[in-house]
What we know:
alpha/beta; Rossmann fold; six-stranded parallel sheet; 10 helices; globular; binds nicotinamide-adenine-dinucleotide
Amino acid sequence: MKIAVIGAGFVGATTAQRLVERNLGEVVLYDIVEGLPQGKALDMMESAPIWGFESRVLGTNDPKDLSGAEMVVIASGMARQPGMSRDDLLERNAGIVASVADLVHEHAHQAMVIVVTNPVDALTHLVAAKVGTPKDRIFGMGGILDSARFRHFIATEMGVAQADVDAMVLGGHGDDMVPLPRFATVNGVSIETLLSADQIQKLVARTRDGGAEIVRYLKKGSAYYAPAAAIAQMVESVVRDQKRLLPCSVWCSGQYGITGQFVGLPVILGRSGVEKIVELPLSAAELKELQGSSAHVAAKVAKLQIAA
Ligand code: NAD
């Protein structure tokens, strides 16, 4: 599969690296900065003899190289700086993503699209409107990353294997995301039987602040190792038709009482894209939080004045 990654910054380049190292396809790494994608792609390819992968990555500033891509990852745009929320990026990144969407429309309009640029849920809406991608073939990345952070914090708090912890975070990828402790488990055992309510509340709060915690450390730019891992997991589920159950920002048409917008929900991702939105039996309080988070996304979309 030909996979185009747009934006050769920290997230885009690390994603390209993870994709080729897992032999997930032929990767085109595109950016507007001359030399940047070419240099990073060559550097990556020089690791192929050591690491032993056969996939190739081409770095380019020529949009024509996007032609024929079956999957496009959009990771172009500004990352937040200390003190900024993801929402503060809305207007600046909407302009960048709109111009990228025009390129995707022109050169790869058949492609499945994964949007990463923040604020991701609103910008996924923008790309869907501009490219015209069928709604089951476009989704945003946010929930897998938020869930991985929650899982990591639970594993660290309990001193258990990271792989034994499962958890899900739904809603918009922002300060009002919805971690679901009731559905978090350690090898099948609910964390509610293993941790105190106070411990769980602290882990939830740290998860909500997870992106900002890293921005505060880095002082310039935001996270990219875990985001790239999350993107690669989405790509792999599609390319290898794994049908993983993953939280992604997807188009809602009535599920969880939400209609006509993109928000993070559990979905089955396979070769044809979003194969199913899974409806969890949420409590009234969880549902209220999810709908509140989705209303916040809707307000951002309204600011962008997108015709759905
Ligand atoms: P970065 O600054 O390192 O890279 C951004 C790249 O985009 C730059 O190389 C820049 O030249 C390129 N770019 C700008 N305009 C472009 C255009 N019109 N066409 C092609 N390329 C263009 O930033 P980063 O750390 O890689 O983050 C990228 C985006 O991903 C940010 O918006 C960030 O907030 C977002 N992000 C989202 C998640 C998530 O969970 N959804 C996680 C991490 C980062």
